[in-house]
Amino acid sequence: MSSAVIVREASKSFQLRHDFTIRDALANRRKRQDPSNIVQALEDVSFHVDQGEGLALMGQNGSGKSTLLKLISGVMQPDSGTVHVRGTIAGLIDVGAGLHPELTCRENIYLNSAILGMTRAQTATNFDAIVSFAGLERFLDTQARFLSSGMFSRLGFSVAIHTEPDIFLVDEVLAVGDGQFKRKCRRALIAQRVKGMTLIIVAHEVDLLRRLCSNAVVLDQGRVVFQGPLADAEKVTGDDDDGN
User: What share of residues in the chain are helix, strand, coil (percent, to 5)?
Assistant: First the structure.
């Protein structure tokens, strides 16, 4: 089986910022050059995801999961190493990603769909389904800046899932919104997995991960400490049926 995603020795670091003005920047020049101000988010991360596979990214907060998803999505580039993706890719890795606050929900649907590779005709065909899934019929002509973070998430997820990408990335989106919307998201993800969509997901609901994923990668302080069957990953992380 061919791989949908291949990550090879990928590393990513960030510089802590201490300056807010030009004067601060000059005063903190030496501090910024200090290696102690470098945060190593990912270090020599390698793994692959087969086409049609469901992979859970697991680890404590700050272990590098979100950064890794951003490298896979192309939002960020690794400092070293490579990330190869085969097929179309979409998902929700940040609340409001791809949405313009000054545009209306209607305009954002067309904009975000275009960013994710849909033609205007395809978006028009899926428009009613996108709006219905998000439950934002009353807000179609409202600027996105007036939406709550939950509404942002609902709109972004709905557009992404209706593009039916080859690879879908999810970063804790199911933690946003009410119970009814969470259940709708779960059903949509399960339906797409049945169709063969490749999924990479960060979530703390172990029961959901068991329904969506067969394998897992566990990160600890930016390094891979386990990769293999999800059941074995649960033993490494200590997660139980409640996700604790």
Answer: 40, 25, 30
- Measured CA to CA, the distance from residue 148 to residue 134 in angstroms comes to 13
- With contact defined as beta carbons under 8 Å apart, do 167 and 200 qualify? yes
In the block, residue with structure tokens 């085969």: 86
Q: Which CATH class is domain 3-237?
A: alpha beta
For position 208, what pLDDT does the model report? 86
Nearest to residue 173, comparing CAs of 163, 192, 164, 160?
Answer: 160
The pTM score is 0.84
* Beta-bridge partners for 220: 223
All structural domains of the chain with their residue ranges: 3-237
Separation of alpha carbons 53 and 3, rounded Å: 9
Kindly write down the DSSP assignment for every residue of 122-170, as one continuous string: HHHHHHHHHHHHHT-GGGTTSBGGGS-HHHHHHHHHHHHHHT--SEEEE
> 123 with 110: CB under 8 angstroms?
yes
Cα-based distances in Å from 205 to 135, 175, 221:
24, 9, 21
Judge whether residue 13 has pLDDT over 80.
yes
